[in-house]
Amino acid sequence: MLELSPKTIHTIKNTFHVIFIGVITFELLRKASFLLPEDWLFFLTSDAIENFICACIAYGLYYFVFRLDHIWKKISMIILCIIILLLLASLKDYRIHGTTDFKQTFEYFTSSLGISLLFYSGIYFINRLEFLNRYKMLEKELNLAKAQLLKNQLHPHFLFNAFNSLYSLSLKNHPETSDYILKLSSMMRYLTDETHLTKVPLHKEIDFIEKYIAIERIRFGEDARITLTIKDSDYSSTFIAPFLLITLVENAFKHGFYTNSKDAFVNIYLNIKDNNLLCTVENSLFSKQHFQESNRDGKGLENLKQRLQLLYPKRSNMSITTTKESYTTQLKIPLSNEIV
Known about the structure:
By secondary structure, this protein is of the alpha+beta class. It folds into two domains: 6-134, no CATH class; 174-334, Heat Shock Protein 90. 63% of the residues lie in helices and 13% in strands. Helix 7 (202-220) packs parallel to helix 8. The longest helix has 70 residues, at 102-171. Residues 289-296 have low confidence and may be disordered.
């Protein structure tokens, strides 16, 4: 459902009531000018009177009867409305056939009752627009809150691994420890300053990935088989929900490099096609690890799937391919040209 501002909803409601009441009133006055005072019975049983009475009943039910606290008062008012419609149906039957017949009167009654319910439905819907719109806004805010919670769950997990790596370097008095700290500081600034937004520039997310990879290169050495391929595309004016890609990258390093195998590798490929970001992350997989897709989907990937459902429902796609030598995750995310 389309979200509307309170001012727009107020305008729609007032316009509906003015037009609806105006049409009913105009038709009533038009009939009165033709039929009064010569033919009172024909006027009282005309469609204009029927629509007027049905509209009055509909407004009365919505704004008065159904808001009564006492149940017996509600029942009494509903019975009164039924009696009014029955009297109208009886007069109409008498005017047309010169007598009253229960079957014919009942048909006229059900017709008037249907018109009343139709009018009531229109009044109910137009007045519920505000509540439906408020529900939609609350649902959106709830989804954003869920996404923020899932995102916040990822941050401690990432920082825990990063500080473990820093601790390992410090024990070895690694010469690039200071560079590691500087890059990690830059990444933490991104986490605190940018990711509270629903959308961030894609180039900042890519820069975050590049710093992460640079940190891992320091840890595993420049000869480590780590590749990041970014196909030439315009990333300057596209936006993405933050902290999505790092989950795949971190997961690849966890299961590809943290095994301490000399044959370990991680390959990352990014491309924009048809206004969609295509991200492919592949890492080595060794039979001695006995990793299966069912137990590989840990907290990180599970949180990512939930975030994708909340942020890009039915518009994103993530697939996983496992072979004896590699584990590949492919992610497709729609990009936007503005921050929303």
